[in-house]
Amino acid sequence: MTALETWELRAEFARRLSVMYGQEVPAYNTLVDVSTEVNEAYVAKQGAEAERLGSISRVTAERHGAIRVGSPKEMAQVARIFAAFGMYPVGFYDLRDASSSSVPVVSTAFRPIDSNELARNPFRVFTSMLAAEDPRFFDCDLRAELAKFIGARQLFGEDLLNLADKAAADAGLDQDDAERLLDLATAAFELSGDPVDYEWYNKLEAISAVASDIGGVSTTHINHLTPRVLDIDDLYERMQARGITMIDEIQGPPRWDGPDVLLRQTSFRALGENRVFRYADGSTNEGELRVRFGEVEARGIALTVSGRDLYDRMVAESDARLAEAPLGTTRVEAAAGVWAENLPRTEKELALQGLAYFTYGLDEGQLGQTPLAGPVTLADLVEAGIAVPEPIVYEDFLPRSAAGIFQSNLTEEGSKDEAQAGTNYDIHRMSTIVGTKVHDPNDLYQRQQEDSIASLAQRLNVSITN
């Protein structure tokens, strides 16, 4: 019986979720169609240069999903499910203080960590867990109620979890088991028709709409699925031209005439969806919830630790300028000037200044013009044109941008008691929660870069220093 390898399971899982979500949120299909139009137009205009950050086939097929769970137990179960698809936790994101709205979650992203696996299918799922222990959001009584409600539900059945463990252990499944796993995994993230307890949901919604979406319902669901585009500004304009209401601005770095770095994101606003509510007297009636939206992303070059430090300083400077700018100035407008003043305008300069991650190819034509003897520096090889920097794509997320997307789709600010001390979460605690190491994205990018430099040194038969 034909077996499906891990990457094939992952690709099919992403495809099935996309079909399901398109049926639940038809505007998502419009977003995918427009994304395809944008990518095709960009390639037609830019040619081969358009694929510098990924082939058009990869970019067009690329998705990231987002889900929300309520407890460490549920988070650990999610980790088992995604391991079946070769997706492992990468990065820690604390959204609790990343926006002015009440967003009481901490997150990680499950994705492939090997570059070859990413090239085959780069599906990611940004997974948020309710920080239900944080007293700034939930008082003692509400924490107890949340623990009881979330503890009583079962998001993922034992059959699904056992099949996931088998797939992870065997790096794939036979056809019958694969079909069963895919059916169960997809269904686990389908929007439920179960009635929603009106009073309980509203009680949590007063704290945060994100909290009610996690802890106010009996199941989890795909919150959004995100296609990738090569020109997010063009997509934003095309979506508005189709009459679809977008959030106010594109999150992340501004548009400018230098290299694209990190991640830019935007979305259409959350749409009203019919749900059944159960009231205190036992009666039920239809109502509407607005919790799911359509997000899109444009990915740039991964920045080094030094590059991220510069990025954080530029964000802070952009905020300061915006605070002093004339009324009507947007964040993007304030940031564009800061970017032009501080960030190198070429990939080569990013590489030479150690601000971004690259793999390094060899230009043998230049090699013949520059004899090598003894140890050489990477910078010397780049300057001579012998080592050719090829950008490593940023595969991860930005806490402020994620929180900005969440905030832009909330109707109310929610509430937070700043007099209380927040509960401590970090990447180490998240590793304990999910039951496996949460990878630091910088370690993954650094390893990819170092492997490339080592391969180049071997080809040149020289020692390369930084």
From TrEMBL:
Database matches in InterPro entries: HGLS, YdcJ_bac-like
GO terms for MF: dioxygenase activity
EC number: 1.13.11.93
Protein keywords: Dioxygenase, Iron, Oxidoreductase
Cofactor field: Fe(2+)
Enzymatic class: oxidoreductase
Domain of life: Bacteria
Membrane-crossing segments per the record: none
Similarity remark: Belongs to the 2-oxoadipate dioxygenase/decarboxylase family.
PANTHER family per record: 2-OXOADIPATE DIOXYGENASE_DECARBOXYLASE (PTHR39479:SF2), PTHR39479
Protein name: 2-oxoadipate dioxygenase/decarboxylase
Lineage, opening ranks: Bacteria, Bacillati, Actinomycetota, Actinomycetes, Micrococcales
